[in-house]
Amino acid sequence: MEPIRGGWTMLLHVGDLVKMRKAHPCGNDVWRITYVGADIKMRCEKCQRIVMLERPVFEKRVRKLLESAGESEA
Ligand SMILES: [Zn+2]
């Protein structure tokens, strides 16, 4: 796959596992990406709730990419 051109700092894929700076009310801070576009959708790994964030907002709130689904796809 070609890198996304758009000035985003992170290369994200559906299936990526990310750690956020702020924990969800359920106490979990690890999320699975379920949609990547101008907005990012992610599912809480603990309570399964889905949250949608605008991409710049997501990139401000994310702390770390724990697992990339993109690397294994040839
Ligand atoms: Zn949660």
Describe the structure.
This protein has 74 residues and is mainly β. It is 9% helix and 38% strand. It has one helix at 55-61, and strands at 17-20, 30-36, 39-44, 50-54, 62-67. Strands 4-3-2-1-5 form a 5-stranded antiparallel sheet, with helices on one face. A hairpin with a 5-residue loop joins strand 3 and strand 4. The model has no long low-confidence stretch (mean pLDDT 88). The structure holds zinc ion.
What is the fold's blueprint, element by element?
Blueprint: E1 17-20, E2 30-36, E3 39-44, E4 50-54, H1 55-61, E5 62-67
Antiparallel strand pairs: 1-2, 1-5, 2-3, 3-4
This protein binds zinc ion (ZN).
Zinc ion is lined by residues 24, 26, 28, 44, 46-47, 49.
Ligands, ions, cofactors: zinc ion
Counting structural domains, the number is: 1
Q: Count up the helices.
A: 1
User: What is the string of SSEs from the N terminus onward?
Assistant: EEEEHE
| Whole-angstrom Rg | 12 Å
Q: What fraction strand?
A: 35-45%
Question: Features of this protein?
Answer:
mainly beta, Thrombin, subunit H, 5-stranded antiparallel sheet, 9% helix, binds zinc ion
